[in-house]
Amino acid sequence: MKSTFNIDNPEQHARWNDFVAASPHGDVLQTLEWGEVKKPDWQPLPVAAEENGQLVATALVLKRALPGGKCLFYVPRGPILDWSNPRLFGLIKEQLLLAAKEHGAIYIKIDPALPDKSTFSDLFRRNGFIPSPEARASFGGTQPRCVMKLDISAPLDGVMANFHSKWRYNIRLGARKGLVVKDDCTRNDLKIFHAIYDETAKRDGFIGYPLRYFETQWDVLVERGMAKLFLVYHEDQPLSGAISFVLGKQCWYVFGASSNEKRNLMPNHSMQWAMINWAKECGCDTYDFRGVHDMPEGTSSEDLMSSEDGLVRFKAGFGAELIRYCGEWDLPLSKPGYWAWTTLRPALRKLRR
Question: DSSP code of 57?
Fold first, then answer.
């Protein structure tokens, strides 16, 4: 076993990403490319466990520097391993602890894409992890705890047949009204996407990412076939846009934007259908609409379609099902440091506001 992984070696780089892609719980956020995207605010540290020359567990750590020469470790949507074998979690934990000691981490945060089951929560607790107090109430964590996933393993006609009738109508309406989905975008088209993205941020009241963040994603992910930009036009006017990620058998709708203009044409329905088609072309069997607000596991499709949250209804109309993950778990390594970062710091920020 070893605690570090040579990402500059192309052969090892491919081994890592192939291992992540082959896992049903794999995610682009655990590829080595994602570590490149997050620089320089975060330093990527690939940590791996091997047996008999084979990878058995990986964890792309994002290291965030803290005052006093300390840091925190965050493993977004990881670690990656065969979760039916709890022993492997112990192996990657051991390697994470070695790396944490070397870098002075005050705690390790994990966030695997696992269902919310006692099997996993018990495993984490036995290994000293606790539910993260940092998990935000609305979406349940740094990454959304609840996502909506669509099975696209059937032929496309069968996939569309499971859409709500109004959603099928809106897709066909878009085609009749002359909506055009551009899926051969260039890097320069990011400026068009970002203008709509800014419009969306102002309308919906969130702070968006700067253009350079998406340019980095283009250079790292799009250029390597791991992401794609889509734009929807009507009479040469851009109405909506989105960026999707792809890895192995999974595709994720990650960033979306829509204009305030011509919303009656329902451009987002046409855009999602184009991205689902692309996912099928890439050999995917799962299309992930990503996050919605925290909801209980087992929420019925009827309840999703009648939700007061328009985002939930929109995703449910495509036949997507709610998946509730196990959430963020922290392993405190310095009790004073962990308390100061997760309890004292938020309290002081709230007091200043």
Answer: E
Handedness of CA 147, 140, 124, 330 (dihedral sign): positive
Give DSSP secondary structure letters for 268-336.
Answer: HHHHHHHHHHHHHHTT-SEEEEEEES---TT--HHHHHT-S-HHHHHHHTTT-EEEEB---EEEES-HH
Q: How wide is the angle at C-alpha 93 spanned by C-alphas 87 and 95, nearest 5°?
A: 110
Distance CA 163, CA 169 (A): 10
Ordered structural domains, the chain, with CATH:
10-135+328-352 (3.40.630.30), 146-324 (3.40.630.30)
Number of CB atoms found within 10 A of residue 213's CB: 16
Q: Using DSSP, state whether 342 is helix, strand or coil.
A: helix
- Compute the chain's Rg from CA coordinates: 21
Q: How confident is the model at residue 137 (pLDDT cuts 50, 70, 90)?
A: low
pLDDT at 1: 45
Q: Do residues 245 and 254 make contact, with C-beta atoms less than 8 angstroms apart?
A: yes
Q: Judge residue 262's burial from the number of C-beta atoms within 10 Å of its C-beta, 0-12 exposed, 13-18 middle, 19 or more buried.
A: middle
Long-range pairs, 19-25, Cβ under 8 A, ≥24 = 19/55, 19/58, 19/80, 20/58, 20/80, 20/247, 20/248, 21/247, 21/248, 22/248, 23/80, 23/81, 23/82, 23/248, 25/77, 25/80, 25/83, 25/112, 25/113, 25/114
Which of the four pLDDT bands, split at 50, 70 and 90, describes residue 351? confident
Q: 316 to each of 292, 304, 334, how far by Cα in Å?
A: 11, 6, 43
Q: What is the pLDDT of residue 11?
A: 82
The amino acid present at 30, given as its one-letter code, is Q
pLDDT at 104 over 60: yes
- In the predicted model, is pLDDT for residue 243 greater than 80? yes
Distance, CA of 235 to CA of 256 (rounded, Å):
21
Q: What tens digit of pLDDT does each residue of 198-232 get?
A: 999 999 888 899 999 999 999 999 999 999 999 99
Whats the size of the chain, residue-wise?
353
3-state SS assignment for residue 213: helix
Neighbours of 150 (CB within 10 A): 24
